[in-house]
Design brief:
The chain has 201 residues and is of the alpha/beta class. It has six helices and nine strands. Bound molecules: 5-O-phosphono-beta-D-ribofuranosylamine (GRF). Belongs to the GART family.
């Protein structure tokens, strides 16, 4: 059975593109059934439209309260009955309603080796800290900022002449491969969350 993915984006959507490309092979075991964004005009939504995947937008500012935004986003994502919801460059923290609707089935990819450098500037903080290894983390979302149980991590070197841009790009390349590999394993083989540990297969 082909697993249904809903992917949430805020920007360029290169991680989304990697998933769309992987899903073109039936053996991958998943299909992207919808792409949601928190703002208009994302390149991610354009990529989805090009692939013939339905898109939707829910902007926080269009709702009276954050809770109402969360409810609307939850209802729309749930309407696609996803097996897995993937936050790929989605710059919003979802609320309790959303987390309750997709328990253990909402993952996020982040561009640092968590628990180091959570938040919006992973590569910049890694450079500033002088670490020699950076990377990306796929994790199951909880109510914190980049605090959930870790599904997978991949490392890249930090070079002496790196800028935030060069390091960000090196991380993103590894991050996309990891996302495709891990989501594929999750949907094909299943996964369990045992406390802080995520076990695949
Ligand atoms: C990823 O590196 C993610 O970790 C970070 O934003 C980037 C999203 O890139 N939060 P894209 O939109 O998938 O190209």
């Amino acid at each position: 059975m082909t697993a249904k993915l809903v992917v949430l984006v805020s920007g360029s959507g290169s991680n989304l593109q990697a998933l769309l490309d992987a899903c073109a092979d039936p053996a991958y075991g998943a299909e992207v059934v919808a792409v949601g964004a928190d703002r208009d005009g994302t390149y991610g939504a354009e990529r989805a439209a090009k692939a013939g995947v339905p898109t939707f937008v829910h902007k926080v500012k269009d709702y009276a309260t954050r809770d109402e935004w969360d409810a609307a986003l939850t209802a729309e994502v749930a309407s696609y009955e996803p097996d897995l919801v993937v936050s790929a460059g989605f710059l919003k923290l979802c609320g309790p309603r959303f987390l309750d609707a997709f328990p253990g089935r909402y993952v996020n990819t982040h561009n640092s080796l968590l628990p180091a450098f959570p938040g919006m500037n992973g590569p910049g903080e890694a450079l500033a800290a002088g670490v020699k290894i950076a990377g990306a983390t796929l994790f199951i979302c909880d109510s914190g900022v980049d605090t959930g149980p870790i599904v997978a991590q991949c490392a890249v070197p930090v070079e002496d002449d790196d800028t935030v841009e060069t390091l960000t790009e090196r991380i993103k390349e590894a991050e996309r491969a990891q996302l495709v590999e891990s989501v594929g394993r999750m949907v094909r083989d299943g996964w369990k969350v045992e406390g802080r540990r995520v076990v695949l297969g």
